[in-house]
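Checked the freezer inventory, then went back to the computational side. Two predictions to log before the end of the day. The first one is the construct we discussed on Monday; recording sequence and tokens without edits.
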Amino acid sequence: MLREERETLLVFSDVHLGSDLNDSGPVVARSPTIDRDLARLIAHYRDAARSAGRWRIVIAGDFIDLAGMSVDPQEGDLVHTELTDEERENGVGGAEDHGRLKLRRVAERHADVFAELGAFVADGHAVTVLHGNHDLELHWDSLKDDLRDLVAAAAPEAERAAARARVEFAPWFFYRKDVVYIEHGHQYDPFCATPFVLSPLSPSDPRRVERGFSATLLRAVVRRTEGMNEHGHEDRGLGSYFGWGVSLGARGALALGARFAKAIAELAKNQRAYGSERARAMARDHERRVAEHAHAARVKVDALRALLRLQARPIATTLHGVFASVMLDRLAVGLLVVLALGVVIVLSQVGVLGGWGFVAAGALLAAWIALHVLLSRGRGDVDPARQMFERVARITELFPAPLVVMGHTHVPVAVRVGGATYINVGSWAEEHPDPRGDLRFNPNPNAYRAARTHLVIRETDDGPDARFYEWDPESGPRLRA
């Protein structure tokens, strides 16, 4: 992670290869142009001038959408870990052999991107892949080995071993002292964070990586509901989801409700496992891994512990968090208020309440509003961008660097924070415009277009020279304002 020689860094994030591999429901197709543009970007920088040493691509997480894809085993597939009921319905999950199967499908689906990465490392350059919340399965060493093989396959056979060694992995962050600190950013998002970043295993089944709140809903609800996209939920309230369900018709609403109920049941089951002895043993094992990681990265273990304290508590680790995150607590209060109002109306009609009926109804409505506001705070901050931004100053105290880079939100940002510059490198994940869109969910949808942004960091005697670009399909890299 820390090296003496200088390199020129090319940083991008959130490619989400494989996001449209879906054997379980309607497919929201990936844009055919986004892979073409990414392949051209890699080819461009493979031959571009660099200030020192070789190029190193740093993919800041979510390179592969192992969490979001839905893949069923086919004849001849080697899958030894028995599928759960959830996996039979939504595709193979987070077990090691399941992840290897998904990775093979991704390499077939995105052969052009893998070929360009292979040519990149064959020319002597290097690649570092950070783990994000959508590719937690990279925790398994066999997946790392498979990905190295798939990338290095494009190199001449005599150079393949050397090319393979130039594909590296960073399970938490990438750091160059006085140059840059890079991580994905999902650990500051309570909907996507994992309790044990260096060992993201499920306490209910350690043979599988953890499936948190967002991944559970993505698999069970989003990927299986026609017209529902992964993005655009930050501004949704309870009313908009009710409207969405009604628009599906009786059968569609019932199917959606059933999928939603199964997802909540799974989240509740996993939540109970966090209080088990197995979870406590996992916490002790993670502390050991933190110490080992500090030694390998040549940083102080106290700095890593302080960094851990900055991370958000995963919302699905408490039962209240599970219910608040999907607004079931507010729904329950709303239903009780409706029932109570019905009782008030009936009692007023028969004269029991006399003139106090309006007072009782007003009191119920006031109580509902107050509880709605109070409970909404329990859901937490749905948009993680602010949480990530607020951590920058403390991160630079722990890991001195003039640049802090993250991804996760898919929204490109470049802004000064004290003595550092915080950059969110946006995304390379783009869905193909669908004429059906999510018109029922959003009456004025806009086709989501990836930012195609990337960061180039050149190390100089005067410090790092960072340039933030977006890729123009016609002219190549274009400096952002």
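The second is the one RB wanted added to the comparison set:
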Amino acid sequence: MIKEGVFMVLSYENLIKNHPCFTQGVKNNKGRVHLPVSFGCNIFCNFCKRDINDSENRPGVARGIITPEEAVEVVRRAILLCSDITVAGVAGPGDSLATPYALETFRMIKKEFPHLIKCMSTNGLLLPKFADEIIEVGIDSLTVTVNSIDTKIQAQISEKIIYQGKSYTGEEAAEILIHNQLAGIKQVAKAGITVKVNTVLIPEINGEHIKKLAKTVAEHGAKLYNIIPLIPQHKLSWCSVPTCHQISRSRAEAEAYINVFRHCQRCRADAAGIPGGKDVSKLLYLRPVQLENTFSHG
């Protein structure tokens, strides 16, 4: 553990040893539980299709939404079902900072399960606003999805954002998003929190941008870089799935500047158990919520 002010955060070295995603899951017998408490989102990404179902294995999908109080009960049950769980995480199905529920959940988990690694994912739009709170609640690992640092490219990936009560589109939206992502990464990383950056590789849009992107996020304090192959859907259904060669080339370009994460399984927002091994997710979640009453932007 390392100390930043009065807060204790898990060191990068210990995180690598104990986080199931970083340690390649089943080979190291570490588990995680994702808590789907975050339903709202403030970005309209052209590749994103959130859903409530029990069949798709991809980000943005859960069986239902739960409250922070229910999330604590889910963690209790998850540990009973899989004693190897070392991480409690929030990865949607919306953005973790677009609503207050993720940070509320982590406060409760910190109190009852202080031994668990706390892991959160965000698009980073509100990261500067909530950076101090993220540090205060003791997040150990933060993943920020950054798909471009070029406003022209980003404008093709996200249709618009909702920021401070206003709607922004095109390059204006991209400029706000990119600025906040990089500023937030720098602030959180400075506190000793391990920052991993996810980039959705879209060959037709940001395929030639990875080298510059990886260099920039590393300069702002990110420790790990994860290239996620696009799942062509929603408004980017016309794009192609990255080939193995394109993924390998992008990873090699990024690796000149930052450690590259190579075994992402694109988990659901309610995944639980050991990645690639024991799955206990279907035994955990308490009540489904209808899609039309759940998802929102704003």
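For RB: Residues 170-190 form the longest helix (21 residues). Residues 140 and 193 are 5 Å apart (CA to CA). Let me know if you want it refolded.
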